[in-house]
Design goal:
By secondary structure, the protein is mainly alpha-helical. It contains 18 helices and six strands.
Length: about 375
């Protein structure tokens, strides 16, 4: 067996492997995901080409294929056309076989044609990285064996090659649409797996990403940490990156007496914050109404279903919710007006003037309802300011 250049204790090989796989994770989240797929930042040639070269060595994935599959995932999320939705294909199939779903979709020429635009198409991509995808990972095996010896090097190489298929194709695409907490009520089932995004480069904050897909920063709450964003800030400080887009931070001013075009634009721009605030106020109203109702036992536990699409609520819970709404006019009004509000910014065939009129009418109805939470919501929306 070949002895490597470096002789390390067993834990040394483990640490080196974790370090190497972390570089791969950083390459995926910064280069493939935020830079190429979503154009959230620009990278200078040096880091951009390093990431391309490193991914060629450790994954064999093509930039165009990865970006195309991921863009289609966003465009067709949680539908039968989504390449890897656990809501459609099942969690076990995506978690343990996500790599096979990716490979299948990456071979779909229609997907590449429609979603693969704007990715590198230079001499290196056409002559080395594209046709020589397997050559890269073979070269990585040779490097690992030469540096660390036959057995340690081969084991390290296996870990490197399996890292992205499992953690990115499996965990992020699987668990990230199946289990976790949600800051934002997106139309899809995306979740934040864990608030500290270190192990998977910040991709743990998947619900945040689906809410603001073109943001270079994935953390959104004060307790969340995105290590990928830390690396981007370092590259930016060194002049090697330029951040183009970030999630909007709500700005609150004095309430406008009358809803105007700026109010409408600010509300639509901050619609995720609107829904988060609405959900918080709905939970408070639910607790108040529950306290005054006689049949409390039958309505306990409904809080978890207040923000869920009615089509996804189990029948027994749906009947309980209908019963509580029938016995609580305040909660029924608050519940129904949420749908009226979301319908407003989902209307694509209405003029700006029509939407302003509808938003003004919604605020007037809310403030005349006598429901404190609705009145607070109206004042909040009239207070949003544009950056």
């Amino acid at each position: 067996m070949l002895s490597g250049v470096f002789a390390l204790p067993w834990w040394g090989y483990v640490l080196v492997t974790l370090g190497l796989t972390h570089i791969t994770i950083a390459s995926v989240t910064i280069f493939l995901h935020r830079h190429q797929a979503h154009r959230a930042l620009d990278l200078s040639p040096l880091p951009a080409h390093f990431f391309r070269f490193w991914l060629w060595l450790t994954t064999g994935m093509g930039t165009r294929e990865w970006a195309a599959v991921h863009r289609k995932h966003h465009a067709k999320c949680e539908t039968t056309e989504d390449p890897h939705s656990p809501q459609v294909k099942g969690i076990n199939r995506v978690l343990w076989g996500g790599v096979f779903l990716y490979v299948k979709e990456a071979r779909n020429q229609e997907t590449l044609r429609r979603y693969g635009h704007g990715t590198p198409d230079d001499w290196l991509e056409r002559h080395i990285y594209g046709p020589g995808q397997k050559a890269g990972i073979v070269l990585m095996l040779i490097i690992d064996v030469v540096l660390f010896g036959t057995v340690p090097g081969a084991l390290m190489w296996v870990a490197q090659i399996a890292w992205i298929p499992f953690w990115a194709a499996g965990v992020i695409n699987g668990i990230g649409h199946y289990w976790g907490y949600r800051n934002f009520k997106c139309a899809d089932a995306s979740t934040n797996i864990f608030p500290v995004g270190i192990f998977i480069g910040g991709e743990e904050l998947h619900n945040n990403h689906h809410a603001f897909a073109t943001s270079a920063k994935l953390s959104n709450r004060w307790y969340e940490f995105d290590i990928g964003w830390l690396y981007i800030r370092i590259l930016s400080t060194l002049g090697m990156a330029r951040v183009k887009k970030l999630a909007p931070v709500p700005r609150i001013g004095s309430p406008r007496p009358v809803v105007d075009g700026s109010t409408l634009e600010a509300v639509i721009n901050h619609r995720h914050d609107v829904l988060a605030r609405y959900a918080s106020l709905m939970r408070k109203l639910y607790r108040e109404e529950l306290a005054r109702l006689q049949d409390k036992a039958n309505y306990k536990g409904l809080k978890q279903w207040l923000e869920v699409d009615v089509r996804q609520i189990p029948e027994d819970w749906r009947q309980r919710l209908d019963g509580m709404l029938a016995n609580s006019q305040n909660l029924a009004t608050f519940y129904a007006m949420r749908d009226e509000l979301t319908a407003l910014w989902n209307r694509t065939n209405a003029s700006r003037e029509q939407l302003v009129t509808e938003l003004q009418a919604w605020c007037q109805k809310a403030e005349a309802s006598g429901i404190r939470q609705l009145q607070d919501m109206s004042i909040r929306m009239r207070s949003y300011a544009l950056a």
